[in-house]
Amino acid sequence: MPHCHDDHCEHEHEDLPGSGEQALLYSRIDRDNIRCLNEAEPDSGKSVVKPWDQRLDNDKFVESDADEQLLITIPFTGSVKLRSICLRSGHGDYAPSKLKVYTNRDGIDFDDVSDMQPVQEWDLVRGSDDVVEYTTRSTKFSNVRNITLFFPENYGEDTSIVRFLGFKGEWSEVKRDPIITIYEASANPADHKNPAAEDKLHYSID
């Protein structure tokens, strides 16, 4: 079962069987458009966003490429009130040691995050076989359309490994106001008078 890590954690991680899956937002993620920077294998960042029953699977993981940093942007299919982030990382020194999170920032990269203040950040638990649950400050995560996770460093290895990412919270559909366009079925000549033509007509009669 996941362990909760946060100053505001209420230690409600004694989940009933299946409750983790029920709270997980896996089905509300636009998985085709997950974007991962500095991944060693293309699309491996997408593979760590798994269903709850695959959280302990070791076959799919993302490993960083040029250095220890990873940047993963995950879009949702609606608006999310995010309660927690669930993470299972690599073993030992391959585990990321810090996490910085940004919300509703489209297309950001490593240069952007170096100049931006994160919405929240955590010191991460060293690599564990368990899923670790990090509670968010809910007031700052009340209307999340996409979330970017920046792992800036690890515990000493040249590369970082993440094996599972999950998100818990409440999802709601984003409703857009309809665009109303009025079309004229058939033109009424009386509604489209030509002042110049009328003046000419009056002149001819006079």
Q: Could you give a quick summary of the protein structure above?
A:
The protein is of the alpha+beta class. The chain is built from four helices and nine strands; from the N terminus they run βαβαβββαββββα.
Explain the overall architecture:
The chain has 206 residues and is α+β, with helices and mostly antiparallel strands. The protein has one domain: PITH domain (Jelly Rolls, Sandwich), CATH 2.60.120.470. It contains four helices and nine strands. It has helices at 19-23, 44-47, 110-114, 195-205, and strands at residues 3-4, 35-37, 62-63, 70-89, 98-103, 120-123, 132-135, 144-151, 161-172. Strands 1, 2, 3, 4, 5, 6, 7, 8 and 9 form a nine-stranded mixed beta sheet that branches. It is globular, with a radius of gyration of 26 Å. Mean pLDDT is 85; it is low at 7-22.
What is the averaged pLDDT score? 85
Say which CATH homologous superfamily is assigned: PITH domain
Overall number of structural domains: 1
CATH topology: Jelly Rolls
Count every helix, treating DSSP H or I runs of 4 or more residues as helices. Answer: 4
| CATH class bucket | Mainly Beta
| CATH architecture assignment name | Sandwich
Would you count the extended β strands for me?
9
Q: Note the main sheet.
A: 9 strands, mixed
Euclidean distance between termini CA atoms:
96 Å
The value of Rg in angstroms is 26 Å
Q: In terms of structural class, how would the helical and strand content be classed?
A: alpha+beta
Which runs of at least 5 residues are low in confidence (pLDDT < 50)? 7-22
Specify the helix fraction band. 10-25%
Q: How do the SSEs run, as a string of H and E?
A: EHEHEEEHEEEEH
Shape: globular
Strand portion: 25-35%
Domain PITH: 14-187
GO cellular component, one term: nucleus
Family: Belongs to the PITHD1 family.
Protein name: PITH domain-containing protein
